[in-house]
Design a protein that fits this description.
350 residues, alpha+beta, Helicase, Ruva Protein, domain 3, 8 strands, 10% strand, globular
Length: 350
């Protein structure tokens, strides 16, 4: 069996050939064929050879990045375990605090882009706890490691590494110091480089598009991302459904959706044996999801806006966490003024 000349895959990890192992031991990509090819590619696109080489050779291979990308939470947890990570009370409280702090900005973004404030807040809450945890890896290390040493998605991350170099030149950023996630995502909303270049906006109009340290630009950028991916204002995201008691099909027999993009109509799912809100139009399209928790199974329809959330992270668990966090933040924020007004009225009565 022929192996890729510079890398041999083995169960449980990656075994590098001796020459490349030495390069990685040195902590750089000086002798890596994929790194050399990338440099040539960027030079052909007009970038300075010394500049690109200096950055690539400064990048460090990180085994922890390869370990992390091989077991993301979306693949190793069920809905019950995943939900616990993102819907804790502290994240909800911090979401209300973030909303109150940036209320005017959120209202402006919502009016301009047609995305509800709670959705914008929830994305930033799930991604970075409202800017508290934006990532601990140098982006140059993350992208180089995945571009050169992660064959399953090497083309994608090679593209992102190129986008990152262009981005840092355009925004006048130091590519050696920017930190982000193990996948090279950055800032409050964790944009990958291509998303930063295409969807980030200068929302405070100060002449700089900064989603790394400026929450105002981050809020506008998240809203713009959703608008560009066809978010529909005022439409539902998900709807809980149940198995129709008159149906002969069990949950195991029902043909649940295998793709994130909704294709089948609500009428189709009703005919399959799901009981949905009678006010939901038959012609609407939706995905049907079966999610597992410790308490049992939940059945949901994901509508168009649910699919839009998955454009941010291609996972139904992720989209469900964002949506439910948004609703929890909204409910708590709306409840607090009511509680305060009740207390004030009671004090007046006393």
């Amino acid at each position: 069996m022929l192996l890729v000349p510079w890398m041999r895959a083995v169960a449980g990890g990656l075994l590098l050939l001796p020459g490349l192992a030495a390069a990685i031991d040195k902590g750089d990509y000086t002798d890596h064929p994929k790194a050399s090819a990338f440099i040539e590619q960027m030079v052909e696109q007009g970038m300075d050879r010394d500049y690109v080489s200096g950055l690539v050779f400064d990048a460090k291979h990180k085994q922890s990045i390869l370990d992390a990308i091989s077991k993301p939470a979306e693949k190793r947890l069920d809905w019950g375990g995943y939900r616990k990570i993102f819907l804790g009370q502290s994240r909800i409280d911090q979401g209300v605090e973030f909303w109150n702090t940036y209320e005017d900005t959120l209202n402006r973004a919502s009016a301009m882009y047609g995305v509800a404030p709670e959705v914008i807040v929830a994305i930033i809450g799930v991604e970075t706890r409202y800017g508290r945890h934006a990532g601990r890896y140098r982006v140059i290390d993350a992208l180089a490691t995945l571009a050169f040493d992660y064959p399953p998605r090497s083309p994608f991350f090679t593209t992102q590494l190129g986008e990152f170099l262009q981005l840092t030149q355009e925004q006048k950023l130091d590519p050696k110091v920017i930190k982000g996630s193990y996948a090279g995502a950055m800032g409050y909303g964790q944009f990958i480089p291509s998303s930063y270049r295409h969807y980030a906006v200068d929302f405070d109009r100060d002449g700089t598009t900064d989603i790394l340290s400026n929450p105002v630009d981050a809020i506008g950028s998240v809203a713009n991302y959703f608008k560009q991916h066809k978010w529909r204002s005022g439409e539902p995201v998900t709807l809980a459904v149940a198995l129709n008691q008159s149906s002969m099909k069990t949950a195991d027999e029902l043909a649940w959706s295998t793709a994130l993009k909704p294709v089948e109509t609500v009428a189709y799912w009703r005919n399959q044996g799901l009981a949905a809100d009678p006010t939901l139009a038959n012609e609407a399209v939706a995905t049907a999801m079966r999610l597992t928790t410790a308490a049992g199974e939940e059945y949901w329809l994901g509508m168009h806006n649910f699919y839009v959330i998955t454009r941010y992270n291609h996972s139904s668990l992720y989209a469900m966490a964002v949506h439910q966090l948004s609703q929890a933040i909204l409910e708590q924020r709306e409840a607090k003024p009511a509680a305060a007004e009740t207390t004030a009225n009671e004090n007046k009565g006393a």
